[in-house]
User: Fold these one by one.
Assistant:
Number 1:
Amino acid sequence: MIFGIGNDLAEVDRIRTALERPRTGGRFRKRVFTPGEQAYCERRGKAKYQSYTARFAAKEATMKALGRGWGRAVGWRDVEVVRQPGSRPEIVLHGKAKAYAAEQHIRRFHLALTHTTTLAEAQVMAEL
C-alpha cells in the first residue's frame, strides 16, 4: 500500500550557484549532502552539478512522500541517495527520518531520477 508520493523539480544553475559561492558553498554542501553523495557527485565530472541537483530534488521529494518538511521533523542529511555500481539509485534514511518512517511502518521507497543540463526531477513513493 502507498503511504505517500513526492515529486520535485530543481534547477541545476540554482544548485550550482549555491555550491560555488565562495563563502557559503562548502557549508551548503556539508549541510545538505552526505559524504557518500558528495563523493559520487564529484566523480561525475562535467555532470556533477546535475547529480547534485537530482539528489537535492530526491531529498525534497522524499520529504513530500513522508508528509514531513525540512526542519525539526527531517534534516537534509537524514535522506541519502545511494547508488551501487550497475544498480539504480535508492533512498536510505537516517536519524529522525528513519525513526519517523519506522513509526509509520514504511517498508521501502521507490525512486526515479531524471535530469537535463538545466533541470533535475525526482519522484519518490513511500510504500507500507
Number 2:
Amino acid sequence: MSIRKLTCINCPLGCLLEVTLEEGRVTGVEGNTCPRGKRYAEDEVTCPKRVVTSTLPAGSARVSVKTVPAIPKERIFDVMDVIHGASVTPPVRIGDVIIKNIAGTGSDLVATSEAE
C-alpha cells in the first residue's frame, strides 16, 4: 500500500488530497470536498491529463489555442511538436477546430481567440 498526497486543481478551493493505492489501484481518496476532487485524484495517480495551451501564427497576428479535451500528460511534447510546425489562415473564430485529433491523441486543437 502507498499513499500519494496532492492538491486538487479543479477549482479554487485547492483541497489537499490523500490517495491510497494498492497494487497500482486507487482504493481510497480523502480530503476532497466534492466529487470532482475524487475524480481528479483518481485520474491524476493513474493516468494524468493536461490541457495544452499555446499560440499559432495567423497572418500578422497570433491566435491562442488549447486541446479539447485534455491529453495524456506523456503526450504533451508530441502535441507541442505539431503546434510548433502549424499556422492558421484568418479569419479564425473562437471554437474553430484548428487541428483535429492532434498527434493522434483523440483531442482537437481549438481556437480560443479570433483573428481577422
Number 3:
Amino acid sequence: MAGKEGNELQYLNHYYEKEGSQLVVLYGQKNIGMTELVREFSYEKPVSYYKARPCSEREQRYLWGNELNSQGATLVSYPSYQDLFFALITKRTRKRVIVIEEFQNIVKQSRDFMESLIQFVHNQWNNQSVMVILSSTSIGWIESSMVQKIGEAAYEISGFIKMKGQSFFDMVRCFPDNTRQEQVEMYAILGGFPGLWDHFEKGLSVKENICRHILRRNSYLHEEALHLVADELRETGVYHSILAALASGRQKLNDLYLHTGFSRAKISVYLKNLMELEIVEKVYSYDTAGRENAQKGVYRIQNHFVHFYFRYLYPHMSHLETMTPEEFYEAYIAQDFGNFVTFYFVQVCREYLDYLNARGKLPFVYTKTGEWVGKVGNIDIVAQDEEENTIICLCCWENWEMPYEDYEWLMFCSRKARLDADYIYLFSLSRFEEKLVQEAAVNSHLELIDLDSF
C-alpha cells in the first residue's frame, strides 16, 4: 500500500504510545487500504485479529470462539463476549493490539458487545494494557447511526480515525513503469483506493488492464462497483437507476426526475444516502460576485470506479456479455475515454497546485480553493488568499495540444464569474499552441504546465 507513512499511521501510533488502554474506531471506504494499514501498524506488536461476519449474535460468538480455540484457548461453544476478550490476554505481553474488523456486524445484533468491551478495556486484570481497534467500511453507519446505537458507550472511545483515499502521487510511486499519462488514466478509473490498484498490473497499458481486469467476466473488478452499492444499500434497482442517470450527464435534480420517473422527494433521499457513503457528491460552486451565472444543485458521482462502471459497463451490459473485452473497449470506451478522464485530471492538477502551495512555490499562499460551475462554462480551479488574490486554472486533457481558444474561453468564464484573476495557470496533457506560448512569454502572470512538468 502506498502512502501508509501518512497521518493515519501516525495517529494509530500516537494512541498506542499513550499510557493505559485505548479504544479507537478506524473507518473508511471499502478498498481504501485499512487492512494493510493495520497490518503495518501491528508489525512486531502482539496482535489479535477477528473479522466479524454479518450473522446472528450467537453465531458470531460461536465463530469467534472457534477461531480462538484453534489458537490454543479453551472456550465453550458459545462463549460470552467477556470470555472472548479475556481469552485474548491470557499471556502477559507488552501492550496488545486487538483488531475487530467490520465491528458494526456485531453491534447491530448485540446489545451487550460494547458494554462488555468497555468493561474489558478498563479492567485492570493482570495489569494488561490493550489497544482495541474497531474498524469498519460502513461510513454512513459510523457517521450517522453508531452513536445512537451504542449510546453512552460512545464516550469511552478514545478517538476516531477516518482513512482517506491515497493521492495521485501515491499511485505514481505504485506504478513507476507506466507513463505519466497512463498513471493519470488509471487514477481516473480507480481513484485513491489501493485495494483496487492491486488488481491492475504494473507496466501493462491502461487498455490492457481494463480489458483484462474489468471487462473480462470473473475478474475481481468486473462487478465490484455493484458490490460497493449492494453491500450498504437496499433497493439497489433505484440506486442503479440514479447512478446510471448521473453517469450519463444528468446532474440536476429535475433532470434525474424527468429521466427516472421517481419523485423529487424520493430522489433527494436516495442521493442523501449515496452522499453518506461518499459515492455521490453535491457540487457547490465557488462563491463569487457572479453567483447569478453559477449553477446550483449539481450532483456528481464521487467514487471514480463507480463512475466508470455506470458510464461504460452498466448501459451496455448486453454487449458486454456478447463481445470480447477488446471489442467492447473499442466500441464503447475508446472514443469517449478522454472526456471521462478530463474531470479527474482536474483533481490531479488541484493536487499538484496544493503541493506547490504547501511549499510556497506560488505567487501567494492560498487559503481556500474550489471550482466555479457556471450555467455556461466552468472554471476548473479557483484559489484565493485572505486578501482575495486569485489564481484561476484550466485543465485540458482531451486535446494533445491546448489551443489558444481554450484560454479565451477561460477568460470569458472569468468575466461571467466576475473574478479578477491575478494569475492564470493552464494545464495541458502534452503541449500548447504556439500562440499561447508567445502569450505566456510576454505575460508573467500566465503559467503553462504540461503533464511532464509534474
